[in-house]
Amino acid sequence: MAKPRVHEIAKEIGITSKELLAKLGEMGEYVRGPSSTLEAPVVRRVREAFGGADETPAAPAAKKPAPKAAPKPAETTPAAPAAQQSAPAATPGTPEPTAPPAAEAPRPAAPRPAPRPGPAAPEARPATPGRGGAAPRPRPAGGSAAPAARPSATPGPRPSTPGPRPGGGSAPTPGPRKPGAPRPGNNPFAPAQGMGTQQRRPNNRPDGGQRPGAGAARPGQSDNRMPRPGGTGGLPGMPRPNPAMMPKTANAAIGSRPSRPGGGGPGRGRGGQGGGGNRPGGTGGPPMGGPMGGRGGGRGRGGTQGAFGRGGSAGKRGRKSKKQRRQEFDQMEAPSIGGVRVRKGDGQTVRLRRGASLTDLAEKIGVEAASLVQVLFHLGEMVTATQSVADDTLEVLGAELDYNIEVVSPEDEDRELLESFDLEFGEDIGDEDDLEARPPVVTVMGHVDHGKTKLLDALRNSNVQAREAGGITQAIGAYQVETEVDGNERKITFIDTPGHEAFTAMRARGAKSTDIAVLVVAADDGVMPQTIEALNHAKAADVPIVVAVNKVDKDTADPTRVRGQLSEFGLVPEEYGGDTQFVDVSAITGQGLENLLESIVLTADAALDLRANPDMPAQGVAIEAHLDKGRGPVATVLVHRGTLRIGESIVAGSAHGRVRALINDQGQNVDEAPPSMPVQVLGLTSVPGAGDNVLVVDDDRMARQIADKREARMRAAQQAKASRRKTLDQLFEQLEKGETQELLLILKGDGAGSVEALEDALSKIEVGEEVSLRVIDRGVGAITETNVSLAAASKAVIIGFNVRPTPHAAQLADRENVDIRFYSVIYSAIDEIEAALKGMLKPIYAEETRGHAEVREVFRSSKFGNIAGCMVTSGTIRRNAKARLLRDGVVVADTSIASLRREKDDATEVREGFECGLTLSNFNDIKIGDVIETYEMVEKERE
Length: 943
Ligand SMILES: Nc1nc2c(ncn2[C@@H]2O[C@H](COP(=O)(O)OP(=O)(O)OP(=O)(O)O)[C@@H](O)[C@H]2O)c(=O)[nH]1
Known about the structure:
- This protein has 34 helices and 33 strands.
- The chain has a six-stranded mixed sheet, sandwiched between helices. Strands 13-14-20-17-16-21 form a six-stranded antiparallel beta barrel. Strands 26-27-32-29-28-33 form a six-stranded antiparallel beta barrel.
- It is of the alpha+beta class.
- Guanosine-5'-triphosphate binds next to helix 23.
- Guanosine-5'-triphosphate (GTP) is lined by residues 446, 448-454, 498, 550-551, 553-554, 586-588.
- GTP binds at residues 446-453, 496-500, 550-553.
């Protein structure tokens, strides 16, 4: 059963393999090489073509039309030839998709290319009919052909495929395809017609893939289809009339595109129906309503097969599963939102990360991202498919489509991220026995001017520990004081940033940095609005409150009143039977400070279980961070659990690094920081944000990976925010104002010092108020992909000072068109950037009127809208020129000349005194008497 190979047949015929391959090519058979095998029908056709006897039994000589025809179709079905011819004929008319097959020349009408309806065509048709499929053939007409084709084709071919196919049905049918030259596969339309399919099937050729459309049609598969009973009749396609299919998704929606010439022919009209319409081949299909239409239409060439397959046989190809079909059907019935058809959901929950794009959503709900873009557009927002979209926008869109969009919170997302590294943040490892008491962390809040800062200073200065150590307290964002309670030395950590805003901002970032709130109320002023606000913030965070009634040294102080006032807000003093500690203090005299410390400790003991496992990789929160000259990024970390040590790899938000040094609140270097101890951490590669969580991980690599992922996520979230902010209105506003231009820079240097120095120097550049410079990121080390992505997203320029980009970063920069400038001398960097800034000074433009035209007539055109018949009354009117439409001297529209005609010809310019016809971009409401004024914005020299 071995199939003959090309070189064998070539030898048999007496030609070279190359010649035979060329001939096969002409016949539309794409065979890979001399050792490729050939299917029997092909062999037969080849022999015929070379005057040999047709050995194939199946192929009834009769059918085969002329030698010419013989070739192609044969592939598949020997018998088919004749039939196919018909098909081909039809094809001719149609445009050729791929057309490689052109070669088929032999076929009547030079298959594909030629639209010409070969004489053969007609004949062919007839043939088809016979097969049952006849009717369909309508193709001849060309467009309509499609439909017809399919049916016929299908039917015909299949049956014919006697040989190969089992039930081929009309086994005898000579190779239908042949004739028409344009084998289905080759024929662009084929898909629609179904011819293609068949052919493919028939062709079991190994090389099937080569066929244009054929790829899919594996021989075997084809066969399968054929056999199908239903299919056989030739109406294979017909059966499936399933309209649903036609409308393939996207196409369906749009559906109406006019059909391509080829495909559409007659059927076109219908084309609209199915998405198929659009496709060349497809078009035809739909009309038929037939089965094929559906498929073909939707998938385009390749798809065709599937389409047919269905009808005929097995859907094995798998082109479309039932589910897919179902989807298509759904889609077809999908409601139209703003003219866009998008399949709706059923209230399902779809989880999306913050900053997800429409493409992400589209993937999850199985629709085209482009449709979502359109739907969103109709909902009033313009975003691209890949742009990050704001949470609420996603939710609104989801609601519109009947999906419950769940935007995964940053906290959840971060938890998932850490989990992927087998890390867990926020929990102590081990059991009860591993836990040890830790100092409470306190935040001081209260109304403005009630003495928060003063109190924090007083507490710090009263710090016994500091005094004894002789250290100088350092403002590192937090400090610890010691106090003796019941004979025990107890520590308390104060966060040095007073105010509930900072407290809440951190909390909003998921950082639980405070155990107890000290609410400062000036005794002379009493409870004030921000006192209540602070109170509410503390309550919301479920943090116990200690009230410091301050300024009791003042004559006007009335501590009792404060107690009474706060009682009304639920803070009842212990002395009144409540459970809130009130302490009278004076930040000035130091009165009551020790009592305050004691109350804090007692409250912590009474209300909280402040314990942590000190023997685990440290976890905490960055409460402050900045870029220090010389030391690089410095972060003050409050350790929550575990003990932070020098040399450990840490990740802090999207920053990472290895702990190079730890400095306590007295400026002393320490080797480790246990729970609740604030320390400055040196060694990070970038500056984390306040509130970022900090954790020690196994190694630098893991730290970097986590940091990079967080960075990417943050960027996406930022883009989402930014994108939301940029409405058209705002854009216009910006344009109109044109006041400021900003040069965004990302600085990368070989050391924190040089980066600092560069930033410093840059900040001193001044070229006027119109332009400014902003460093949006800086760092030490090579320019990374992260830097480039940020630059691309922000349209920033990267300055590399004695550093180079990594290979990947360089490639990305190329791709994204990111400008990277390298310097090794700080002054040349400054000079160049200064020049760049000057170059950004907006050019000055002035408007110059070019011409006027008066509307004398308005012609309505279904194709172009309203066309203004004008007389140019001054200057010239140029196509594409900016234009205003004035009505009674009032500007009704500011647009441009979309098209311009003089008489019946397109014109680029029409001068004064001539008549012209024109249309305006996006403006249709033209009336007689309107005046169209064209103008140009001309750049003027700056002085
Ligand atoms: N007499 C007296 N004055 C105080 C006391 N505490 C603070 N002050 C004064 O009150 C004023 C405000 O004190 P701050 O510590 O700046 O108050 P704050 O609450 O931090 O103010 P903001 O930072 O503006 O919210 C300053 O002039 C302090 O000197 C105190 O106990 N007694």
